[in-house]
Amino acid sequence: MERTEEERICLCALARAYGYVPQKALAAIRAAGSATAAFRADTSGKLGGEAFDSAAMELEQARRSGCRFIGLGEAAYPALLAECADPPLGLYFKGDSPPEAVFSGLPAVAVVGTRNITPYGREWCTRIVQALARAPVRPLVVSGLAIGVDITAHRTALACGLPTVAVLPTGIDAVYPSRHVKDAERIAATPGCALVTDYPPGTPPVRMNFLRRNRIIAGLARATLLVESKVRGGGMMTSRLAASYDRDVFALPGRVDDPFSQGCNLLIRENLAEPVGDPAALAERLGLGAAPRREEPDFTAAVGRYYDREGYPEKERDLLVRLAARIRGRRGISLDELCAATRLPFSTVSRVVSMLEMDGFVSMDLLQHCSAHIKKEL
How many Å from the N-terminal Cα to the C-terminal Cα in the chain? Predict the structure, then answer.
């Protein structure tokens, strides 16, 4: 058995034994000179022949299932992550491209935030990732595959041809949440993209895992962007970790009274994050070069053209355009507010907004607050 393979197996065994406190294993490795030496010198009773054989079997099973274990110190291990004070002893990796191609080629940007993404957050997350895709240097987008901001960032990156890495809170053999299985499969099958985790196969999505997963997201990226977050949350933790790693942190400002922007606004007030106001300027600030600015399409004109093509009577078409313009002019406007602004009866407003929503121009939340749908403008 080659020394490198023995070292990898020992790292895997140490990660299983001390994964939740990597600093302890790292100290042992530094003192002994290698994972193999630390493994042999262990007197705690946690390590031994059985632990070694179990780790060897695990790595063999991972290889057979198309995964790979990358040990700390290997050339394929992400260099930025290795610089952190608490890097994982190893990463389980699944992707179409080799890890060297995924982690060594492009600058990485983490995009994180709340699971309860608002129309404002979805719109600006999409715009920002699209701007990064138009930059001369196209980055790797890192996130956690969660509902909300994470999956919006992953899907937008894939749609724009940007590579993306999803950091899992489970073993590499599982996907959480299960509704994102197809997204995970697409990421793993797309060149330049990958799924990664430091949890061994069979690890369930327990609460502690999500918190520990955040350090990997922050550690992989040169910069972290917080799109939306309450004062407490996983995105806030990731952003603060990134700041502690001396990485750049950016945050999307929001309304003072919006709870889903309070975390972003707080980081900006604390000078831990730079505010994002112009996606193209953000790309340049990240060192990706000046992204060409895209002219904003005329939303109401697009609505009018659509219903002209569909053959709607002029009066009905003008009513659709009128309501669309009101919704575009104020994100999150309610049906009652639309009635007051247009002096139209509730039945008419409800019917017209439902048509706009069905045709993809408007999205409406559970409280019946309406926002123009950015995808229809592209």
Answer: 56
